[in-house]
Batch of 3 targets.
Target 1
Amino acid sequence: MRFAILASGSKGNAALVEHGDQLLLIDCGLRFKTLRERMAELGAAPADLTAVLITHEHRDHVVGLAAMARHTGLRPHMTRGTAHQLNFLADDFIPLAADGEFELGGLRVRPYTIPHDAREPVHYQLAAGDAVLSFATDIGRSNDYLLEVLGRSSALVLESNYDPLMLAGNPSYPASLKNRIQGGRGHLSNDEAAALLAAINRPALLTVVAAHLSDNNNRPELPLRLLQESAGRSGHMPAISVCPQGVPLPWTELP
């Protein structure tokens, strides 16, 4: 199994997961033209996709979905709550439920509930053999359920959205937006991401990617340092990298 991130952040979210003859797109938050161009850079094309998985209805996750569905003929997987918010008819999507694990060509897919301000949001854990890839962005707070799910990971794409001091001192963000970001259904700060990593960091965890970074309230070196420090204190150091907003992450192979 391998994965790549085409975009991550408030300007768009999309990732690819490949295993055997399966090529999955997780979220479609880029215009179709941009999505097609970024896929081409990785040697892939929309026609190669075998499934599209949607996390929730926010624009930065679905802006290219209608065009993608038209061009590929694929019905996206999503929760009924997400489909309702997007005005999808029953025949236009494949319904899924949190913790309702299913299989796509030997790839086990587990949607799991995330605390975010959407109708029925989920994110995805994908497993093939011993490789377990977890996506964990758009998360307002960690909880025991998330720790149980993410504790199985051998690779983790983890939200590290903002630095609290930068957000607090940002004059262009009104108090309502700051409260939404910091709230229990908003986004994880760098410190919260580091604490989550500390809680699940085990020898099986080989790769961590900090993602969904804010352009305005973060800098890539901040989550990188905090995640490295957090892992170092546990005595186990996975490979840690950062995917800044708007900067694609090329294929990462999982053993």
Target 2
Amino acid sequence: MSTKHEKILQYIESLPVGDKISVRQIAKEMQVSEGTAYRAIKEAENRRLVSSIERVGTIRIEKKKKENIERLTFAEIVNIVDGQVLGGKSGLHKSLNKFVIGAMQVEDMMRYTDAGSLLIVGNRFKAHEQALKEGAAVLITGGFDTTEENKHLADELELPIISSSYDTFTVATMINRAIYDQLIKKDILLIEDIYVPIEDTAMLRKEQTINDFHQLNTRTTHGAFPVVTNNNKLIGMITAKDVIGKDGVEPIEKVMTKHPISTSMKTSVASAGHRMIWEGIDLLPIVNDDSVLQGVISRQDVLKALQHAQRQPQHGETIDDIVKNEMKILGEEDLVVEFTVTPQMTNQFGAISYGAFTTLLSEVGSIALKRKKRGDAVAENMTIYFIKPVQMESILTVIPHILDMSRKFVKMDFDVYNGSTLVGKAMMMFQLLER
């Protein structure tokens, strides 16, 4: 049975793209309090089902698929550039394919402007009109206005005209950054991408018995099951270990693990895998904010997904990628890594930042473990004994030493040199992600 929160989200998702909604309208339509409606609308915004714009309202926008997440809607553009909508509000839900900077003659601009584009231009009224006629939206920089005729045309064609006080370069940079962030998000695997939904999840009710567990175990060959109420609220987990030596008629509620570890749809697969290894569990239930079961994920699902993700090309460049690009592996037998400090990796004093330094050591540690054929690992903790200021464009040499290695953990020591001077020393504990 769905909660009020879920019913509101389902209702919002069923609305046509472009519809406007409000807290009062949702509260009246769904017969809930305005507080409940407000929380559901905020959740819908987090899920990218709607976009709220100052002085315009909240609009149902197209929910983007993972492979198409880098496309932004015009409603999102308004929020990115702190814009004001001058006309064409009914087209804010539409997505843009590309943006064009109008720093040329109008005729030349139109060669690059087509349907689904966003023309970024100053107070050039003719260019605004021509872009709308070509099927493109318009973003006017410098806080300028447009003509009343162009506003009417925008309303008629359902193509937004947006005004922003920022200059053209700043606006283009902000939009580019937003698209870039979406590309990085696209690369990150979340639980919602790989989980087994509740319809396909084998589970037990709290009033069932250990005999029911054995029957389900025989039928599915699974060794663990979530235990739920009649409303599918998660109240426990039961595994083969819990039922050893127990009477078959004993209720599951008496032997299950209460208040089990669970996670949400928006958790990253890497984070879930780390927790499963750390807690020693093979099956992780996925719940919503009201603890209602949404599905499950197994350790095998996590490992397969991580292995698959490693083989995929990345679209967005993260800090980790920037650090990796500056690493040069030396040494056939004993690993030595040479690393160049770029301006992006420095703090306000022009020395290597703490974040870049820790990322460097984590990456070197991962390479050292792969050389030992120990598979994937995550840094559990780090102790930095000391780090001296290292200026940009310095070339560092990192030498890792494995101090101790077990089936699950590896302790590693690092010496960092700038030329012949020792500039950093640290120790890290890695947790191995193995079956």
Target 3
Amino acid sequence: MLSTKRSQSHHPDSFSSRYRAGKSKARSRDQSVITSRRLHRRHTPDTPPDGSSSSSLNQGVITLTIGPTKRLFAAHKDILCVSPFFAALCNRPSDPSSASSSSSSASKPIDLPDEQPEIFSCILEYLYRGDYYPRLRHDKTNNTWDLETATANTNTNPRDTDPGATLFVPAAGAEILRDTAVYCAAQKYSLELLKRLALKKQGLHSNIPCHTILTSARYAYAHTPDNESKLRAHYLALIIRSRGTFKRSGTMQMEMEQGGKLFFDLFVAMCNHMDDLEEAARPDDTC
């Protein structure tokens, strides 16, 4: 399918499609999607990885309680243990005082009270299918990427935020970009390929309001380590490229008055950007 063309309309507090953080062109295939789909084929419940029957695989189903409401999820152990985080939890030693077998220990429920069910649902969908909603699509004719919701509603106002782009996160007290939340969860669960996928998909969204960008950036800084270089750099580059929009944003002024490491990093990035521009403008003195 062809990528949707959005109008270049301007809005004082929103991003037009020209402010997209990522590039639509990419390599021949997203390796994160390919790798996870191959993994899914090897570990699909219909074809157990060890050649045993599907009934024996069902004995390896792990129950998870997610969030303060303890919403129930279930996943096959072999699928879940692709994540080192869950592998450590699933393979934890059983209680010495218990007479239960190792198999019953493996099926002990995992409780994640601080995780959000909507985000964890994306994690499970990725582990089983190699992607999560809205899914990534490749237009082979133009060698471009878009999201499956991009052409779902052709009558959508060009100024509207892309469907499925944001998610209310109680920890942030506001809506943030869904892909940022997924990226931070992937960081926590050590799913490097999912991090790459989430970052790629985030760059395909458009018309995201300034306040959502800034709230998402703060969330990213709060839920990634200081040595994280991808998602944080993505936001710094986005704000610099879209500085004309942010200069007119009252939200940006309030956010900067509150301060924080995000804005120190932004100041350094701005200085480096100006240095690069000055260097490029200097005449070549080499003989």
